[in-house]
Amino acid sequence: MIVFTLKCRDGHEFETWFRDGAAYERQVRRGLVACPDCGLTEVEKAPMAPRLGRSSKSEPAPRPVRTEAAADATPAASPATPASDRPPTPAEFRRALQVLRHYVESNCEHVGKGFADEARRIHKGEAKARGIYGDATPAEAEKLAEDGIEVAAVPWVPSNDA
Asked: pTM to 2 decimals?
């Protein structure tokens, strides 16, 4: 896994994880990557020091080095992004998941338990390409990944703290 710092046309910066650079390219080309602040899908990589994901058996990933030039070029962090290299607090993490849920519900189609079938139809070009969300068993998600269909499980937190 790799995390990229992205920037939308309006200048908002945000981080997003991808399986690899090719997955980033495919998702951006299909308009599946959107700014969490404004929803624009016109995004590009921002100057950054990439952080690679690691397995639990490997050495810790190196921390990115923040240079003065990079610090000057980086706008203030979004509310869902911690302002420092420290891990997010539980409240920040929960808020980021709430922002993600709101974005998904506002921009994607809920297909319920038919998620795996609809994802496969979209992948094969048998259905209109669009963002979808719904339910899949772990076995269905694993089979989709084996077939080259990118899916992600997202913790579905309540949309507010009420």
From this structure: 0.48
**CA dist., res. 75 & res. 83, Å (int):** 10
What single letter denotes the amino acid at residue 93?
A: F
Strand ranges, E, within 46-131: 51-52, 109-112
pLDDT tens digits, 57-102: 544 444 333 333 333 333 333 444 444 567 878 888 888 888 888 8
Distance CA 57, CA 11 (A): 37
DSSP state of 80: T
Q: How far apart are CA 122 and CA 114, in angstroms?
A: 12
Q: Can you name the residues that pair with 17 across neighbouring β-strands?
A: 3
Q: Which residue has the tokens 């669009």?
A: 130
C-alpha distance across the termini of the chain, in Å: 34
Spatial separation of the C-alpha atoms in residues 24 and 4, rounded to whole Å: 9
The Cα 23–Cα 28 span in angstroms is 9
Q: Are 38 and 10 in contact (CB under 8 A)?
A: yes
Residue 153 in contact with residue 100, Cβ under 8 Å?
Answer: no
